[in-house]
Amino acid sequence: MHIQFKTGFRRFITFILVTACLSPITLLRAETRTESNNLRILDLENSGDPIGKYVTEVLRLAIKKSSVNYVISKMPAVTTPQVRLIEEMSHNRGDLDVMWTMTSDERETQLLPIRIPIDKGLMGWRISFINAELRESMKAIKDIKQLAKFKAGQGYFWPDTTILRHNGLPVVTGTAAALPSMLQQRRFDYFPRSIIEIWNEQNNHPEYVREIDSNIVLHYPTALYFFVAPEQKKLADDIKRGLELAITDGSFEQLFNQYCKPFIVKANMKNRVILELKNPLIQQSKLPLQRPELWFDPT
């Protein structure tokens, strides 16, 4: 009995010492990870993101259909670069449980993708801001070779910069804040934006004298996915199951039309010249292209 008491006491003391050595941050992270039903996302609805509300509603719909009692908690939108947010989530750190971003081979090695394009591929459909004097020149463009005579403007580290250059299109880079004025100063000729971004940007910045080209749409295969930390497979499975059920019963399509159809109508896609681009950032075999119901089709 005496020996057993000493052994038990030593184990208790060891437990106390080990626990004391854990930092408050370590304990907080451990507690946070146990709150598996609390889904932290960035509050992009109030940050100027044109589809922040839509994507949040898609996540709500998936949760509802999954029948798992997840509760969405909105974290204040931050200026932290997306690459850092991805890095933190990839190591199960940071303040987010779910994020959405355009997929790539690199991102799919860092995070666990839920391979259902919540934008139905709209991020890959791009129309451009131009200066008025370029209007007639854009109407004459029928192929990539003709477009290559003009310079596009894009952000320094934007995926589109790589995609455009891969397809032989010259690109002038700048910061996101500087690009509109760079276009106005004729530093480049056209500024491609997704059809779910461009109208919001036009309305929010009337100070820039520019117009939206009505002739060309650039298209490359890509998808906006929900991503979670690599360890969160159950969460990924629950969200995917909810999305699949919403697709089957038509509620996903209804939500998509409610929020995204106005962009599609404004873009007048059927009357544009479609220039197809290759996307070197993602292997097409990884995209669910064999499921046409998941993708927007302008025809």
Walkthrough of the structure:
This is Solute-binding protein family 3/N-terminal domain-containing protein. It comes from Undibacterium nitidum. The structure is a single chain. The chain is α/β, with parallel strands linked by helices and 299 residues long. 42% of the residues lie in helices and 18% in strands. It contains 12 helices and 12 strands. Helix 3 crosses helix 11 and helix 3 (52-66) runs antiparallel to helix 12 (251-267).
List the keywords:
alpha/beta, 299 residues, globular, D-Maltodextrin-Binding Protein, domain 2, 18% strand, disordered N terminus, 3-stranded antiparallel sheet, 42% helix
Topology:
Elements lengths: L1 H20 L2 H11 L3 E6 L8 H15 L4 E6 L5 H9 L8 E4 L2 H6 L1 E3 L10 E6 L4 H5 L4 H4 L4 E4 L3 H8 L4 E4 L4 H6 L5 E5 L3 H7 L6 E2 L3 E4 L4 E5 L4 H17 L1 H17 L5 E4 L23
Parallel strand pairs: 1-2, 6-7, 10-12
Antiparallel strand pairs: 3-11, 4-11, 5-8, 5-9, 5-10
Protein name: Solute-binding protein family 3/N-terminal domain-containing protein
In short:
This is Solute-binding protein family 3/N-terminal domain-containing protein. The protein has 299 residues and is an alpha/beta fold.
